[in-house]
């Protein structure tokens, strides 16, 4: 996904431009730190205290120049208008958040308002059109049958979550003024890997296969996750 995001940034903005990035629901700050290391000004918004602590710890280990380019704000992604003015960012990330939001339209509209004209909105969501894949490949036939007709599921953390369908999100993005520019699949072949599985020796080959599948039909349509990139008009 990081490679996909980099492809979109390079293709949309002049090389060397320092972008204003907002990472909503930044978690432990993996993507935020990566973009700060690349020279961008990054703001991370997160409401979970444990995630904020992990992000601050990771940031503390970075050189001073990177620490100065990244700030962390405690807050909810649905309240971006409380913290920032409209059009304040060139790139807005919202990765792995929508599955925990029962009614995401208001959140998405708020994220779109944060974008400057031509800005990039990057969403990572659970693929509602492929919920039968993981249980089916694991031999859980009852779970696979249930997945065909549902957009809710129990994730690996044991939490009830919600998936999004590509068609629905495409319509939503058009309606909030950040129409879909392109989309990718994420975790096409690796979604059934066990948590904590050892990193394979042929990691680069694995990543090359996932990257190719994530941009190629019909493979990307059955990925566990979808990476959608909208552009503010």
UniProtKB/TrEMBL annotation:
InterPro entries: Methyltransf_11, SAM-dependent_MTases_sf
Keywords, alphabetical: Methyltransferase, S-adenosyl-L-methionine, Transferase
GO molecular function: methyltransferase activity
PANTHER family in alphabetical order: METHYLTRANSFERASE (PTHR43464), UBIQUINONE BIOSYNTHESIS O-METHYLTRANSFERASE, MITOCHONDRIAL (PTHR43464:SF19)
Location of the Methyltransferase type domain: 22-122
ATP-binding found in the keyword field: no
Record-given protein name: Methyltransferase domain-containing protein
Residue spans crossing the bilayer: none
One GO BP annotation of this record: methylation
A Pfam family: Methyltransf_11
